[in-house]
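Purpose: get a first structural picture of the assembly so the mutagenesis plan has something to point at.
Setup: two entries, given in the order below. No constraints added.
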Amino acid sequence: MNAKIVIPGEEIESRGKKIGSNVYTRNGRSYSAVLGLLNENETYVKVVPLAGKYMPKEDDLVLGLVEDVKYAGAFLDISSVNSAFLPATEMGRNDDPKAGDLILARVSEVDEVNSARLISGSIVGRGKVIEVSSAKIPRVLGTKKSMLNLLKDKTGCKIIVGMNGRIWVQGENAPVVILAIRKIEEEAHKSGLTNKIETFLEKEIKKEKKSD
Amino acid sequence: MAGKGNENVTYVDKSGKRLDGRKVDELRPIKVDVGVLDRADGSAYVEWGHNKAIAAVYGPREVLPKHMANPYKAIMRVYYRMAPFSVPEHKRPAPGRREIEISKVLSEALDAAVLTERFPQSQIEVHIDILDADAGTRITALTAASAALADAGIPMRDLVAGVSVGKAGGRVIADLTKAEEDASDAVDIPMAILPSTKEVVLLQMDGILTKEEWKDAHELAHKAAEKVYNLQKEALRKRYESAEAVEETEEIAETKEEVVE
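Result (structure tokens, whole complex):
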């Protein structure tokens, strides 16, 4: 994935192609709208952003922090433009959210001002939470979740990845997972990442064992 | 600030050199660095001659107070501030008339570039601090702000590239320093464009020019802005390409370590 880096306003060759996200047209010519990687084939062009705020999409799993609890439900900070509402009816019977709790929920709908409504919420237990840019989440997951499975298998940790950029980790090797995710974050725009992370994890776990 | 300077100074000598040795169309040395602040969504640092500006971008995020929000587009809030130590005489730290004006014109220039209609009911904040000033700080600030917005991943039609042109000692020159701005006949024109369409998004003028002089100045500004644009592009690319170079050296270091083992 050593794609070309494009700058906002840079012209993109799009003759006879479908225009994907983050590309805009003016007078029949196409330009990139963000700083990102050019992704194109014979039929379409789009730009994958390298940074940016999380914009909720239907069906995304997100990890939200409870900001405020009302009778009808809770407002969660999902590190987006607006906080998202999770109705009380969509929470587990025994879940009693309080400000500061971490909740895993699914986005059911997004309105015209990018506010999300959430469903199927459940409080997440003890663990470590880190935040990465939501633009980098696809690399943390990998193709068909290959990267996530690698992290889970090598370290034996439980990991929940919220599409909004919050990642919850629980287990003995949690610090190693966090180091690995930081490395993915740094090198998200480069190719051959899964292999690199595999060797990195093996090395780190060996180190941990030695120090024990 | 026309009228302050010394009538006897030659601002452009016979060989076409200026007070600091530059040619009439030459810019001061410019350095653009992107992603300098960890906690901001996007940031940039620009050195333009003796000018130093740092810009931080936050957002899009919730608008407070809520009545300021626009249901059709994001609002751009720009805070241009000069540090008390940025000028020879201590500047009072409270934002003054000039800073409020510059914040306004910069927010309008950036508003023309950002695709604000994608983020209704939200705001994009740009905080710019001038650490050192030597004429042309609003353009330095704008250069930093535009690079910081792109770094934050905010959708934009184009970057905003600007430059100041003007007149000193009867000659039309690019990128005036404080000494040149103080010439008795000085004219200062900060101008910013969207490079892909050549649309003008910021244009102010202090002083008087003839029609011919204005034509020259305008052409000069377009050419100079193009140079600034290239520097901004380069800085944004470098942020992601330099990571590659660092990694290669790291790999070399790692293999060495293994040999020692």
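Residues 193-211 of chain A form the longest helix (19 residues).
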